[in-house]
Amino acid sequence: MTRLPYPTLPVPNDWDRRGLPAWTYHSEAMFALEREQLFLTHWQLAGHECDIPAPGDWLGFDLLGERAVVMRGADGVVRAFHNLCRHRGARVVAGDSGHCKGAIVCPFHGWVYDLDGGLRGPARPSSFGEMERAQFGLKPVEMEIFHGFIFLRFAPGPQPPVADLLAPFAKDFAAYKISDVLPAGRTKWENDLPVNWKSVRDVDNEGYHVAMAHPGLQELYGRTYRDLNLANGLTVSVGWFGDAPGRGWSVRHYIRLAPDRPDLPKHLQRAWTYYGLFPNTVIAMTPEGAQFYQDLPLSASVTRLTGRLYRHPDETRQARLARYLSYRIDRDTSVEDQQLSIWSNESMKSSSFEGFHLSDLEYGLRCHHDGLRHLMPVMTLPDAPPEHDIARRNAEMSQLSAPDA
């Protein structure tokens, strides 16, 4: 087996095999706490620099009441702003992506902003009296770029800078030349699922189910698949293909057409590799392309599955066909995972549900839950506190577990 160059966390000989208590999956108060202490304070992936190649190109990114716009300025620099006009708070752009020709014009009252976010001027400026324009530019959102991927964070949080956080992935990303990828057609996809976001992550954070639930993936690489848990909420999952002929149409032809990549290090050749970032993002690489996907909660009981697809700039016809086939395999896998997420989420409200009992092959799921418990220790309580008391109990438990307590 190819040796993987990652400092992984070993599975303990004796560990607590329980998962999160069921009440954490349907509590509105718990979800409100996750919004404030998890999603708004952790890095979220908004897209890739190649999605906004020209000055004035922009991407929209909404998350739990916050909304951002990522735009390439006239100087070629990528910046991120809150998507709120400084006059009345209207969106200055609407949609997933678009282009502003020379300036950003608010559709509500016509305030005009430069592409770097500075206020050029309000409509009918004399009606505002004395006004210092420099104080009314679009408010910036914290943003960092890693090998072309654009990360946002709406509030300060516990994660380090992206370059430090994702340093274990840097050599692989450089080998894939991921900074140079291009959008693959209609790059963005999304689908809303009637489940709590944690149920989606629970399915995706372990490969124990691959052999049974994903016949396509099992046929492609299931014999070699492994999940690796790294520090700081990072994971790597990888499977190598080509050691056996495929039987299904998509897998059989994919194995035949997947491009050889002798330029890649040994551990990435003939491999599908998934790089996970806590709490809700995965970047996936294959020989012929790349993608990212993430689970964006819309409410305690609805999650938006979304992501973007990319290709290499020197793509051959053979690689394009392989990318189409990998998309077909991924599409089937996603449908299978969505059904598993629904079943898992349903179980959380059953009086017969007694919690998880995890396999060593599901240790990644345990690590994910440990990350949530560390941030929100109220999740360690087996029984749900009263809804009105969850935030207070969490604050109390956080104070008791603080290093200086």
From TrEMBL:
Matching PROSITE patterns: RIESKE (PS51296)
Keyword field: 2Fe-2S, Dioxygenase, Iron, Iron-sulfur, Metal-binding, Oxidoreductase
Keyword Iron: yes
One of the record's GO molecular function terms: 2 iron, 2 sulfur cluster binding
Rieske domain location: 43-152
Cofactor entry: Fe cation
Iron-sulfur listed as a keyword: yes
Matching CDD domains: RHO_alpha_C, Rieske_RO_Alpha_N
PANTHER family for the chain: CHOLINE MONOOXYGENASE, CHLOROPLASTIC (PTHR43756)
Protein name, per record: Phenylpropionate dioxygenase, large terminal subunit
Organism in which the protein naturally occurs: Roseovarius azorensis
Phylogenetic lineage: Bacteria, Pseudomonadati, Pseudomonadota, Alphaproteobacteria, Rhodobacterales
